[in-house]
Amino acid sequence: MPLFMLLAGVSAWYSLRQRTTRAYLRERVVRILVPLVIGVLVLVPPQVYLERRLRGEFSGSLLAFYPHFFQGIYPQGNFSWHHLWFLGHLFAYAVVALPLFRWWNTPRGRRQLAWVARLTRRRAGLALLALPLVLERHLLWGLFPERHMLTSDWSNHALLFVAYLYGFVLAGEPPIEQAMETQRRPAATAAITGIACIGALMWHGELPDHLPPPYSAGYLAFWTLYAIVAWSWMVTVLGWGRRHLVRPMPAPLRSSWLGYLLYLLHQPVIVAVAYVVVPWHAALATKFASVFVASLAGTVLATLAVQRVLLFATEALSGCPRGRRFRAPS
Questions:
Q1: pLDDT tens digits along 74-115
Q2: Closest CA to 267 of 291, 299, 292
Q3: Positive or negative CA dihedral for 203, 205, 207, 211?
Q4: CB atoms within 10 A of CB 307
Q5: CB-based contact 215:144 (threshold 8 Å)
Q6: pLDDT tens-digit readout, 152-172
Q7: pTM of the model
């Protein structure tokens, strides 16, 4: 999720270069807030419905369940935004960060960004940008236990909002992008090593239910590792992407909506597949492999199908020529 926020910050840079403040805010509403509302009304109810059926808490049809979706707040109730919380956070960040983004485009702001770029060109200079992520995990995670609530999830806000700002800075200062390419190998080493350590802790049952007590030595060590891994993956993906993902992509993959649709559709597909697979009398490894393969295939197929429908609908409504691609929300 920090990587997605960073990429959204990159998109904000390019959007603000071409739009007035009013046009930019209008675009955020159309591309983020409207899909959030539609997604909550269309994509989330089937997920809650299947969960309630699997647990024996509801036995009727999806149509019969739909009015119950608006009763209470999940998990005690049914109403939720599930995986679409990301869009709510992103819209809030887009509005809150707008004055800062405008200032960074002034001469004084540009000088500040240039200073950050010079800092990252030093050996392991990019690692310094992980420090805010480490500090906020240390300070805030134990104080704000609620997750994915827009008004109270301050620990995740700090992590994701900083990643969003970093994306804007990255787009505004190409030397930082060059530094990511240069430092991609040590970043990849740190990312893979760190995620292996976290995976080992999960395998032995230490995570996610047995985190060390807040502000203990183990707590500080884990969240230091977590923040470094998060930043290292951002540097790794962007650095290797800049190095290798420069060749033209096949036509079906060129649409900038593709990644956005994958995000919107992946969880409903996973929940639907899991609803079928979980009751099986089979080994855990078999169930996991079945959910993984079927969810991956189902998400890709659903994404391509929806992409095609949206493309034809856009062409029909606007009269734009065949092959013209609409732009993704960001």
A1: 989 999 999 999 999 999 999 999 999 999 988 998 898 888
A2: 299
A3: negative
A4: 20
A5: no
A6: 788 888 889 999 999 999 888
A7: 0.81
